[in-house]
Each structure stands twice: as structure tokens, then as C-alpha cells.
Amino acid sequence: MMTQELDDEPLSLVIVKNDEQVIAGSQSGALYTWNWNTWSDYSKWIGHPNSVDALCKLDEDTICTGGSDGLLRLITVSPQQQFEGILGDHGEDFPIEKMAVGFDEKYLASCGHDLHLRFWNIEFLYENTKRKQQETATSGVNKQETNEPNTVSSPIRINKFDPKDEKLDSLLKSNAEWSKAVTEADPNFFKKLAQIQEPKILWVGCADSRVPANQLVQLAPGEVFVHRNIANVVCHSDLNCLSVLQYAVDVLKVEHVIVCGHSNCGGVAAAMGSGQYGLIDNWLRNIKDVYRFYEKELDEIKDSKERLSRLIEFNAIHSAQNVCRSTIVQNAWHRGQKLTVHAWVYDLENGLVKRLEFSHKDPAKLPSIYACQPL
Ligand SMILES: [Zn+2]
What we know:
CATH topology of the largest domain: Beta-carbonic Anhydrase, Chain A
Number of strands: 16
EC number: 4.2.1.1
Binding site for Zn(2+): 206, 208, 262, 265
Radius of gyration: 26 Å
GO molecular function: carbonate dehydratase activity; zinc ion binding
Coiled coil: 284-311
Distance between the termini: 80 Å
Protein name: Carbonic anhydrase
Bound molecules: zinc ion
């Protein structure tokens, strides 16, 4: 038996869905799919800009494609073929020839024309699948009956900047790849986003390079309005921060303001000490004021690391309180606008965010000295 002649050269092959589906990658970049034994009928999905030279099954619903553009792409095949993200990169001029999953399902190996074998961590895919299987087993619901798509986590790229790249070429290359990948996943993504932004969240965080707002809560461009400064300080006279707050609340109508501190914050640590750092000392005075408010409790903490952690939490809470005390937020609440203010802290050691004991959504709990009459 054989399929009919294609108008495109098939280069790679994989069998999935418990041997029920055959997928071929082609010269034009399309994926052709046949159900076993129905060789006269196929579906065609044009999901790659260049030829698909290698294919590898990750599980019955997920495959990895290796392209002549050097990219490894993660594709779900059920309930429909869909691009999920880039798993790895051999370099633009280095087509990928072969891929295989290791026996313990931790790594996907690939080889390409760049003269390297490369290994990509794919453990998270299987953790996700196992978790889903457990959830399904616990709830007693058959996944097929619910018709739930078998989603997988989006792969994460962790690139490192090469200081020798003085012209920043690598950044522009990464940007072009990112733009291409996003467009492949959703051809209208940038077109829609260029028209309007409708974020529901304002993030006030530290300028620290290790605390990127969108990335750590896994939200796409357009989802979070962001203000960052040294040590996530919100003070009553900072026109920059207040302007961001006013635009976010009055114009964008965000529904949540998150003030997020982070462990081992250099700004808060500097405010705890007596060293001089220049102009920034005046900014850090705001945190010294926070220390003074909680002086008794902080002074009782003998361990300096613990004391710093507690001041980081107090500083985030104090900034969140100042958000609530602003006329901007009070007026929004008076208008009946839905708006909750949160204080969080992010742990650099494990990448996890913790909620602090602070979440306000009405003016009732404001100290009377800060409460304004409705306009
Ligand atoms: Zn910081």
C-alpha cells in the first residue's frame, strides 16, 4: 500500500495517537497527516516557514519538528495541530537532521549542521501530562468525553547576553525569531495588540533585572501595565508613579494593582544601612521611613537576613497602602469601579511569588486621616 503522490516532497515521518495517525514533514514546511489505512485522504497544515527535516514524537499528542531554519518547534497534534512554542535553536543556517527522546524522558537530543549534538530539557512536558492524567483519574472524568484539548506548558527560552556582542545583533536576531514565532502561533496577535491595550493589571515592582513582571506570571504582551523603580516604592509625591497609576486606573480601568517586592532587594538592604550611594540615598529615605513605622518589631529580629526579609514585606505593604491612600484609587472606588490592591513578594531563590497579608478593594479600611470625600 502507499499514499497518492504528493505535490510536495515528504522529508520526515512520525506515528502518533497510538499508531492511528501518520504525520509527514515536507519540503514546503507543511505537515501532512493520514489516519492509518486511509492513505488516499490526508489533511495538510502549513505551520512552518521552511522545510521540516526531522520529526520526533514526545507523547501521543505532542511532537517536535526540526526545521531547516535550525529551530525545534513544539506542536500539539490533538485535537488539532497547533504551534506551542520554540523548544530550541541550532542556528539559522544549520538545519536539524535527527531528534530522539532519552530513555528517562528528560531530554530531547537533536543534531544539526552546526556540528553539535544538543540536548533540550523536556521534563516539564511529561510532568504536565502526568499531572493531567492524575487530575483526570481523580475527577473520574474521561478526557475525551470533555473534549478538553491536551495543552502543554509553553516552552521557555533562557538566553544569555554575550558581552562581546557590541552591536547587539543577537538581541535583534532573538527579537526577529520571537516575532516570527508569535506570528506563527497567532497571525493576528500583533495586529490586534497594535490597535488597543486592555490590561487588567498594573504591576508596581522593583527595577531589579531578576524580577521581570510579565515573565514571572507568564502573561503575554498587552496583559500587564508596568511601573518599576528602585525597591518598588510608592510615595505620595512621585509624579512618575502617580501618573502611571492615574492612567492605569482612570483610562485603562485596570482591576488589580499589584505591588511586588522581592527577596534580597538591594534597595531595601541599602536603606537598612548607613552607607552613602549618592542621589539614590534620597529615594531610599522613603524605606527608612517604613523602617521607623515598624521599628519595634524589626529591632526585635536579631538575624539581619530575617530583618531584611521582613522590611521587604513591610515596604511592599506600605507602598500598597499608599496606592490605596491616593486620591486616584479612592475616587475610583467612590465611582464604584472594581479595583483591588495587592501586596506580594517574589522569592529570587525559587522564582515563586507569595501573597502578603494585604488586599484592599474599598475605602472602608483607610485610616480617617487619608480618607477623601467623594468628588
Ligand atoms: Zn529590588
